[in-house]
């Protein structure tokens, strides 16, 4: 894959470049500040962009703003956003543009090389990769009202795993239940939330659920 990286921490940036190139990918450009990102993305049109949320000059949301601007110019550009902390507002704003080809991971996750590379591959393929902490906070914030109240504890567990972009077989293995049981729980979740299950890729179901949780869905 051809990748553009935006990270102001030189050590982490060089570490990402080394990790990605040693994994067979090509880093076509790297940026250390917000204003550098969009020009690099438009010039190189990479297969995926890996962007830090907070970058110079203000260290607020330059990476996020660049991600949103890039998606406006290149709607199909897969973007994996990295953040030091769970910032719900930023996650929600990014997801509001559509969860297809979107990832939001805490930087701690980068140290878990296999998980990071798996998330990067999933996003580049048009899927979704959300950090478990992000999912938990989004669900917790929305659980006090509406149809989420009707979900059982097990259904909430399945929903959290779905929102992380996991396939049914993976969910079944992690919860130590059958894949058939997972499918049944998913059917119940969609019924209770008033959402129609999608027979396509997992990320389409994630998009529907997260759009609903953020109050932005059309369902």
TrEMBL record:
The scientific name of the source species is Streptomyces anulatus
| Leader peptide range in chain numbering | none
Keywords on record: DNA-binding, Phosphoprotein, Transcription, Transcription regulation
Q: Which InterPro entries match?
A: CheY-like_superfamily, NreC/VraR/RcsB-like_REC, Sig_transdc_resp-reg_receiver, Tscrpt_reg_LuxR_C, WalR-like
Residue positions of the PTM 4-aspartylphosphate?
52
Q: Which residues form the Response regulatory domain?
A: 2-122
Q: What is this protein called?
A: Response regulator transcription factor
Where in the numbering of this chain does the HTH luxR-type domain appear?
A: 144-216
């Amino acid at each position: 894959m051809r990748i553009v990286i935006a990270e102001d921490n030189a050590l982490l940036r060089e570490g990402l470049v080394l990790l990605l190139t040693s994994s067979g990918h090509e880093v076509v450009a790297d940026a250390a500040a917000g204003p550098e990102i969009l020009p690099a993305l438009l010039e190189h049109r990479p297969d995926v962009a890996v962007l830090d949320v907070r970058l110079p000059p203000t260290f607020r949301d330059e990476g996020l703003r660049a991600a949103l601007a890039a998606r406006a110019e290149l709607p199909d550009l897969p973007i994996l956003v990295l953040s030091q902390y769970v910032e719900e507002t930023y996650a929600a704003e990014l997801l509001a543009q559509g969860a297809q080809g979107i990832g939001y991971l805490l930087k701690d996750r980068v140290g878990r090389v296999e998980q990071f590379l798996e998330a990067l591959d999933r996003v580049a393929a048009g899927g979704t990769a959300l950090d478990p902490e992000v999912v938990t906070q989004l669900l917790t914030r929305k659980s006090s009202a509406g149809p989420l109240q009707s979900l059982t504890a097990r259904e909430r567990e399945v929903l959290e795993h779905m929102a992380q972009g996991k396939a049914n077989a993976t969910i079944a293995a992690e919860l130590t239940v059958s894949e058939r049981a997972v499918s049944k729980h998913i059917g119940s979740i969609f019924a209770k939330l008033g959402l129609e299950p999608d027979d396509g890729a997992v990320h389409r179901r994630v998009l529907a659920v997260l759009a609903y949780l953020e109050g932005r869905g059309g369902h």
